[in-house]
Hints:
By secondary structure, this protein is mostly helical. The chain has one domain. Helix content is 69%, strand content 0%. It contains three helices and no strands. It starts with 14 loop residues before the first helix and ends with a helix.
Amino acid sequence: MSFSVQNEKTSKAGFFTVAGAVFWSFLGIRRRQDYESDAESISLKQVVIAGIIGGLIFVVGVVVLVNVIVVNIGTAN
């Protein structure tokens, strides 16, 4: 029994494709067709890096929002 390895060039997904896939995955909204397309072009390394960056941006955004609200609570009359 022999296995043949195909040397197909898979196109690497760009920054915005990976960012969009991670964003929609954060929201939990993903079409099956989009998922399958992303699975072919996005590597695991790209997803992990984009997920970490997206998570950090989310956490920093929440912290900043809470700080702005807390600071402005004392000034509201």
